[in-house]
Amino acid sequence: MAAALTPQQLSETHRPTLDQALETIGTRAYWSPHPEHPKAYGEGGAPGSLGAAEGKTAFDAVLNTRFDLDQPGTDGWTGGEVSPYGPELGVEYPHADIDVLLPAMKAGTAAWRAAGPETRALVCLEILSRISARTHELAHAVMHTSGQAFMMAFQAGGPHAQDRGLEAVAYAYQEQTRTPGSADWSKPQGKRDPLKLTKTFTTSGRGIALVIGCNTFPTWNGYPGLFASLSTGNPVLVKPHPRAVLPLALTVRIAREVLAEAGFDPNLVALAAERPGEGIAKTLAVRPEIRIIDYTGSTAFGDWLEANARQAQVYTEKAGVNTIVVDSTDDYRGLLANVAFSLSLYSGQMCTTPQNLLIPRDGITTDAGPKSYDEVVSDIAAAVNGLLGDDARAAALLGALVNPDVKARVEAAGELGEVALPSRTVANAEFPDAVVRTPVVVKLDGTKTDEDAAYLSECFGPVSFAVAVESTDAALELLRRTIREKGAMTVGAYTTSPEVERAIEDVCLDESAQLSLNLTGGVYVNQTAAFSDFHGSGGNPAANAALCDAAFVANRFRVVEVRRQA
Amino acid sequence: MAAALTPQQLSETHRPTLDQALETIGTRAYWSPHPEHPKAYGEGGAPGSLGAAEGKTAFDAVLNTRFDLDQPGTDGWTGGEVSPYGPELGVEYPHADIDVLLPAMKAGTAAWRAAGPETRALVCLEILSRISARTHELAHAVMHTSGQAFMMAFQAGGPHAQDRGLEAVAYAYQEQTRTPGSADWSKPQGKRDPLKLTKTFTTSGRGIALVIGCNTFPTWNGYPGLFASLSTGNPVLVKPHPRAVLPLALTVRIAREVLAEAGFDPNLVALAAERPGEGIAKTLAVRPEIRIIDYTGSTAFGDWLEANARQAQVYTEKAGVNTIVVDSTDDYRGLLANVAFSLSLYSGQMCTTPQNLLIPRDGITTDAGPKSYDEVVSDIAAAVNGLLGDDARAAALLGALVNPDVKARVEAAGELGEVALPSRTVANAEFPDAVVRTPVVVKLDGTKTDEDAAYLSECFGPVSFAVAVESTDAALELLRRTIREKGAMTVGAYTTSPEVERAIEDVCLDESAQLSLNLTGGVYVNQTAAFSDFHGSGGNPAANAALCDAAFVANRFRVVEVRRQA
């Protein structure tokens, strides 16, 4: 087909954004081209974007339809998503015969490679731009697959996810352009003529990349791998979580449209929806055509991928046990409010939510006087209760539990120890079938090794442990052990002591964990900002990669050199 | 101890070299700070460097001694190297109790991390500079362990190896300084005060790095991993090949001296020599302390490392089957001379030596008229004979066979097909015990699939196959299959046809192999230049990494962020 999107158009529209992204990953200052406020979209907002009502209408129009993508090898239809808020989505997606789809995805590789790093980056930015214009529509899709509350689904599933995708494109572009396209090489030979070669260097993708999506953050965790692989020259097959297909199906459709309009094969991006119980990720992961895998999910399957998908580069974000060390503070109220929010946001169903609060059993010093272990725990409980006392506000912060396993863990948490804060059921007025629970906080004795099984396992969901430890030193020992053995996406700490601060930093440097110190305001340990914060470190068992750094992109392509005598 | 080498001294001495290396990996023009000519060292040459006689004296002084490194955990002595030229070296190296040595190596990690990327790079450059000053000494050590002829041992084992080490340091420095040391982050909040954070970013090594050395190029293949890991903050344990310990033992001693003088723990670099048959690489490779492994050697052990050393980042250079496609040429004499040299250099014992010469069975067109398959093969044979007709010249080019396995392969090659060029024994006047053999060229029929077992296996040593193929198209199909299934460190091709040239390039881009086109002068397919050429691609089965690119260094460290409310 004729190319409707020319390289020049793409460059005029997106090159300034790419340049700003490149600059920002170097300074790591604040920046985002994707507005966070719902009112920034639609009439009077970003040009061509859907407003709130239009986005809702677009989402509703997809429900109970067949979501055709015109992919090669479609051999049937599959679906079955049920919103954590209650409704069945009723969407059917194409099921692919991978023996047909995978070869078709490779057909466009040579042209995509020949386009070069800049054009690939700009096409990716056009895809992101169209996704951004449909943030309202995607927000509903994320909400009704993940169980996130609308505002979170809007922000984390929209602009923040798009930021992470753009960040990956910027890193990929930077790494691919480190080597020049060509070079003249002339080696002196004393009195003889120099040896002369002309050399060309071409970045070449590795093969088909597989993105294995997760239930809780289908776009936020999916976009980095998708855009890192696509912009480095690889076709990308998106295998969504069976309970969170729609956000990624919408994404794939947009990507295919843009690729075709820019004159490339739309099959460079495809969807692999699976039949119930099919377990297609395991089949795909070991196919020889699959050379890159991005995965977010359980440690068990992440470990399986790392051990078995030996033909591929495997990037995993698995489970960890996140810790907050409470040593001392000069803003006790701020600490309580900040921790309460962190425990509550999306019902603790973030891979970054703190699980273990390590508190010296003899208490801590604060600006409000000394506080005993029991006081700290009950004050945190009270802060959570205060934050979530009103059902409407609570529902808007908690969202819904993503699946019955989380509900079961919340209900069983009381068996693990003394309950300092019981979970309560919250009513969602708009969606009465939503399962909404407030966090439970359980007291555990960190000086007894027979209780460590509980706090040294990930208990995904709104369950936290207030672990009494012998001292801050003991807290640091436990922190080190937890990161080393179980991994951590985040570590938080509160201290007024420079020595303690330094000691916590050393533990995090030694064990490779990202640390937030003394957060008492509107930034929370579970949130990271693209272009500035790293998500995970890639250096402890929770994840083998960080979002986003050079290591996340540099091995998705290879540089092929051709040298000729000059 | 007091630091004798201050950061300021290091910066004054080495920062200009680092800057030039950084610039050159961007332009990929010719550059090296390490002179190739033996006369550039010693009196009147590089200041402080050993001249030819001094280097020989230093080498002789080490023979038949205990090579003490003052390493923790030394529990005995081991040795037994025998030069491929005949003499026993008689050197004994410390054998380490790794349960003592590994913890000792970690002790200096925090200070090495705190030194930061620039100081680490400059310390590495000081190490390289002292190695460079002792190039003559190291040349003898490389010669009498690898069997390389002196001039090759001098150049490839000296300046070229040092170039590859420096290149790795430059890449590592560049990747580590991509993220700033600190950042101020301020996120607007409409009418409210912005959210403000101060952030620090620290590069942190992964843990102890293991370098598993090879017999043929102990320094050239060892330095990239050693310096990439050390400069990214990791202690490095060097496990040399038991037949090629001395070059790396000398390297380790120099590194330890420099580290101590710069105020760091010398145990950041240590040697792990092994007792005969101990197989210590397998033990070390799966120790939890070992987080990075660089390996050059057999495919079998490389595959084992990739499958089993799951706790480590594993960089392997294994075996491949290198091909030259002969389609046509406008410089037939140049082709013959170039190919003859490539087959002969170091008795074909380079991982980059061409093995399969694919020649259309109906012959090729040349500037000297059409040449049949038989003519091309006999002309190559004649060119090799011409090059190696004089024993003294032949010995200086061939070196010695590195081990009895290579000799056995040369002697058995005649069973594989019709011998177009028999191997002949060359006398080495200075070292009568050296085993020196000229290359053997065997004719194989590439149109018969029952003969592909020979040319589709690596036959390491001076054995090449002149494979008759149906056509150039068939040659390209076989080239593709060879790279995909067996891997290739190098591909060469001769053609005067732009279409054929383009088709060969496409195969190499698709299968990720480095291509040299129409080499007829003084550059050979088996040689690469640091800062400009990539060694291997990391994208086919011959190697999972290239020397040197960002992917080779970016995952040897992690960036740990600490953020604080501003």
Automatic annotation (TrEMBL), chains A, B:
Gene3D superfamilies the UniProt entry points to: Aldehyde Dehydrogenase, Chain A, domain 1, Aldehyde Dehydrogenase, Chain A, domain 2
Pfam families per record: Aldedh
UniProt key word Oxidoreductase: yes
Domain of life: Bacteria
Chain positions covered by the region annotation Disordered: 30-53
Matches recorded under SUPFAM superfamilies: ALDH-like
Statement: the UniProt record of this protein carries the keyword Amino-acid biosynthesis: no
GO molecular function: L-glutamate gamma-semialdehyde dehydrogenase activity
BP GO terms, sorted: L-proline catabolic process to L-glutamate
Single GO cellular component term: cytoplasmic side of plasma membrane
Keywords carried by this UniProt record: NAD, Oxidoreductase
Domain Aldehyde dehydrogenase, chain residue ranges per copy: 96-479
NCBIfam families: PaaN_2
Annotated protein name in UniProt: Aldehyde dehydrogenase
Organism: Streptomyces nanshensis
